[in-house]
Amino acid sequence: MLDERVPVKRAVTAWMFFGCLAVASFYEALKLPFGRTNAPGAGFFPVILSVLLGLMSLVGMVTALRGGHRENEEGRLVWNKIILMAAVLLVFAFVFEFFGYLLTTFLFVMFVLWVVERKSMMQAGVVALCASLVSYLLFGLLLGAPLPAGFLPV
Q1: Residue 45: pLDDT above 60?
Q2: Are 42 and 33 in contact (CB under 8 A)?
Q3: Distance of alpha carbon 95 from alpha carbon 42, whole angstroms
Q4: Residue 130 lies in a domain
Q5: By residue range, what is the domain housing residue 61?
Q6: Most confidently predicted of 41-45, 79-83, 121-125
Q7: Is residue 119 pLDDT above 50, yes or no?
Q8: Cβ burial 85-102 (10 Å sphere, 16+ → b, else e)
Q9: Domain boundary among 19, 42, 65
């Protein structure tokens, strides 16, 4: 019985840490000019990201308290996934300018879902396409962030 509570305790403690980090980040981000959606200020993204981190922390904590937190069979980190993700992020950084935002983001999300998380190719492709297009629309078109086109004429 004690063994079952230890992972839940660890998960709740971790989510509480991230919740405190979100509150501190939000407090500091409010000191920066917020701006508007069509002209974001220096505090725009930090405020949005700290709110998202806070919401994720709440959801994670509630899930852990309800018993939804599960560790892998051995109760330890899966190092091969961590190393693979670090390698993929390194490749992403190197090919980002050449391939451009849309293609690099699509390939990155596709790889993570299909190879690392073992989702079906169809599911990974649909999520990767939606993630790359929605993020491009949000950052590239709506917010006007300069995103590299690469060799694609976008």
Answers
A1: yes
A2: yes
A3: 28
A4: yes
A5: 2-65
A6: 121-125
A7: yes
A8: eeebeeebeeebeebbbb
A9: 65
